[in-house]
């Protein structure tokens, strides 16, 4: 049984809706919370969660994320009950979800004009071919170095030239951030084939992109 199935089974056992089942009532005009920055480097705009639309991603791939979601849902329900208002639910995806298939989603629970709770989770884009193909597209030099560990100080163990295609056999891909803010993509299971720089920091140029026709 894979991780996503285990998490979903845990959610169902607890009798709470899965993350992607959160919906809000349809409305002709729903105002964004006043404390939500619509433009943020590395992130797509906030999107309203409604009953009429299926979400373009899956999320919740660890027990830690499940626990965080349950806390988020509880805080939202408590605030809604106190205010006697039906909450409005939003989400926003990181650019990485669209560009490489794995990234993050941030959920927001709105009461009146403000977010009362948010939750950050790993997300994967729906509808991708498997294995997931990524193409190197570095904007500095002719490609990216493969490092033994996810840091620029680590030993170089290889090189991937621009246009090289690699394949991720399972999702979500493993992405980590070092002390400088640089984003690293694991190559192979758990990085046992090395690590490659994904971006200098969140919101910067991505050194990998989904191969056609997934782009």
Task: Describe what you observe in this structure.
The protein is of the alpha+beta class and 215 residues long. The chain folds into two domains: 3-125, no CATH class; 132-210, SH3 type barrels (Roll), CATH 2.30.30. The protein has three helices and 13 strands, in the order H-E-E-H-E-H-E-E-E-E-E-E-E-E-E-E. It has helices at 3-14, 63-83, 95-100, and strands at residues 47-48, 57-59, 88-93, 102-111, 114-125, 132-136, 143-147, 156-161, 165-168, 175-177, 183-186, 195-199, 208-210. It has a five-stranded antiparallel sheet. The chain has a five-stranded antiparallel sheet with strand order 8-7-12-11-10, with no helix packed on it.
Question: What structural keywords apply?
Answer:
3 helices, disordered N terminus, 5-stranded antiparallel sheet, 2 domains, alpha+beta, SH3 type barrels
Brief sketch in words of this structure:
By secondary structure, this protein is an alpha+beta fold. Helices cover 18% and strands 32% of the residues.
Number of domains: 2
| Helix percentage | 10-25%
- Derived from helix and strand composition plus strand pairing, the structural class reads alpha+beta
Helical segment count? 3
**What portion of residues belong to β-strands?**
25-35%
The number of distinct β-strands equals: 13
């Amino acid at each position: 049984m894979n991780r996503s199935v285990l998490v979903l089974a845990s959610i169902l056992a607890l009798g709470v809706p899965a993350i992607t089942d959160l919906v809000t009532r349809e409305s002709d005009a729903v105002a964004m919370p006043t404390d939500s920055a619509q433009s943020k480097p590395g992130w797509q705009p906030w999107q309203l969660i409604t009953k009429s639309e299926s979400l373009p991603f899956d999320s919740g791939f660890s027990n830690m994320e499940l626990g965080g979601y349950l806390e988020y849902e509880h805080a939202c329900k408590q605030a809604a009950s106190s205010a006697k208002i039906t909450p409005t639910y939003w989400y926003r995806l990181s650019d990485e979800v669209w560009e490489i298939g794995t990234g993050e989603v941030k959920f927001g629970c709105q009461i009146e004009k403000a977010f009362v709770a948010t939750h950050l989770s790993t997300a994967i884009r729906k509808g991708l071919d498997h294995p997931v193909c990524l193409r190197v597209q570095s904007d500095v030099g002719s490609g990216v170095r493969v490092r033994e560990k996810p840091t620029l100080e680590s030993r170089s163990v290889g090189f991937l030239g621009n246009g090289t295609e690699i394949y991720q056999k399972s999702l979500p891909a493993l992405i980590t951030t070092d002390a400088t803010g640089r984003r690293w993509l694991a190559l192979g299971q758990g990085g046992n084939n090395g690590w490659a720089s994904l971006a200098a920091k969140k919101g910067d140029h991505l050194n990998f992109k989904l191969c056609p026709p997934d782009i």
